[in-house]
């Protein structure tokens, strides 16, 4: 499709804007009043302190013991978190802190390379793979205050090392190790989620097209310092389109906010060496909304840049995704009509992040 061969207007790197020491951000990044964040520093002037809730922190160590009571309690915590929050932190998840740190360091080095080198990997809206600065191809859209790098790891037919950064040295090895560990964790979680629904442990994975065909990609988000963080967002409200997301957050700089049940934005404070897990739209559809894909966004900071690694575990692109027949009953009829992940993603890649409007469009008429 020729329409999506290139961006509708010249790409501006947010990092370059940030480094040019502007006092005011360009209008392209100024959000309408209703979408601007209420920054934490302004919050203690509010009568109601909004920091009242926090997403659950789950110790996955409980899954690897012989203590069956603890094992069951851990499964139960995951089940509750998927139903009530759609978002939780995990600790003792099996990934070594050294590898987590190495991955972050490697990407920080990448984003600090000279612009000419990064631009050699510039992406296009055709596949989004590579170094990018916008999501969506609508001309004149209001943009987010971030740059990113996006790459495919799974299925192996989509893995293309020439689309991965060539620098810093050893970057590809680190990435390979990191993504392999992420896939392991996702496969484990898929089995657990399936069992927690009262299903055989491979049902959810099979609905994704099986272990070999499931997709895995990495999006590294780079949020440069921003002189007017109160006017913009690092990432607009969205729910993740895929299956499961595992985020390695920046432990030094908070920024991720999750939409709580009363619609308030809750800032996530990462626990040491924690990973943040969230349910994506495909699992919400497959589970007929038993598990929730929750809206989230990112705010930026005037003082610090922020880096995060989001690993997305997705269904195979061309298989039908619809509520699992085991979960559809007379009392709980199917809430969504069938789609494929490739189709679903295309609307997001055209329009950019839009709260939860993409999944709501698939609600069956009732
Ligand atoms: C994402 C995302 C959050 C963050 O990449 O989809 O929500 O903290 N990232 O960067
Ligand atoms: Ni997200």
UniProtKB/TrEMBL annotation:
Molecular functions per Gene Ontology: dioxygenase activity; jasmonic acid hydrolase; metal ion binding
Iron in keyword set: yes
Organism, as annotated: Brassica carinata (Ethiopian mustard)
Residue ranges annotated for the Fe2OG dioxygenase domain, each copy included: 213-315
Protein's UniProt name: Fe2OG dioxygenase domain-containing protein
Domain of life (superkingdom): Eukaryota
CC cofactor: L-ascorbate; Fe(2+)
Keywords annotated in UniProt: Dioxygenase, Iron, Jasmonic acid signaling pathway, Metal-binding, Oxidoreductase, Plant defense
């Amino acid at each position: 499709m020729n329409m999506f061969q290139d961006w509708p207007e010249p790409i501006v790197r947010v990092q370059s804007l940030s480094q040019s020491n502007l006092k005011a951000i360009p209008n392209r990044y100024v959000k309408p009043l209703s979408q601007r964040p209420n920054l934490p520093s302004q919050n203690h002037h509010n009568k109601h302190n909004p920091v009242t809730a926090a997403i659950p922190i789950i110790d996955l160590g409980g899954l690897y013991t012989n203590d069956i009571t603890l094992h069951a309690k851990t499964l139960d915590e995951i089940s509750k978190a998927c139903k009530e929050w759609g978002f939780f932190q995990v600790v003792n998840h099996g990934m070594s802190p050294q590898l987590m740190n190495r991955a972050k360091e490697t990407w920080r080095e990448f984003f600090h390379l000279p612009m000419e080198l990064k631009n050699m990997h510039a992406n296009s809206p055709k596949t989004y793979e590579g170094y990018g600065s916008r999501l969506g191809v609508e001309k004149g859209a209001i943009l987010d205050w971030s740059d990113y790098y996006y790459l495919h790891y799974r299925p192996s037919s989509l893995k293309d090392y020439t689309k991965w950064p060539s620098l810093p040295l050893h970057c590809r090895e680190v990435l390979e190790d990191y993504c392999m560990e992420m896939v392991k964790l996702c496969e484990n979680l898929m089995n657990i989620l399936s069992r927690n629904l009262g299903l055989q442990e491979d049902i959810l994975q099979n609905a994704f097209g099986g272990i070999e065909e499931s997709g895995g990609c990495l999006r590294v988000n780079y949020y440069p310092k921003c002189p007017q963080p109160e006017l913009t967002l690092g990432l607009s409200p969205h729910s993740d389109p895929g299956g499961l997301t595992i985020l390695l957050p920046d432990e030094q700089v908070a920024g991720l906010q999750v939409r709580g049940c009363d619609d308030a934005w809750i800032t996530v404070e990462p626990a040491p060496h924690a990973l943040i897990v969230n349910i994506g739209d495909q699992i919400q559809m497959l589970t007929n909304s038993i598990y929730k894909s929750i809206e989230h966004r990112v705010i930026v900071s005037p003082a610090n840049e922020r880096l995060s690694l989001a690993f997305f575990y997705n269904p195979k692109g061309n298989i039908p995704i619809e509520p699992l027949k085991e979960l559809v009953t007379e009392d709980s009829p199917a809430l969504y009509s069938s789609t494929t992940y490739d189709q679903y993603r295309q609307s997001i890649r055209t329009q950019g992040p839009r709260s939860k409007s993409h999944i709501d469009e698939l609600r069956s008429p009732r």
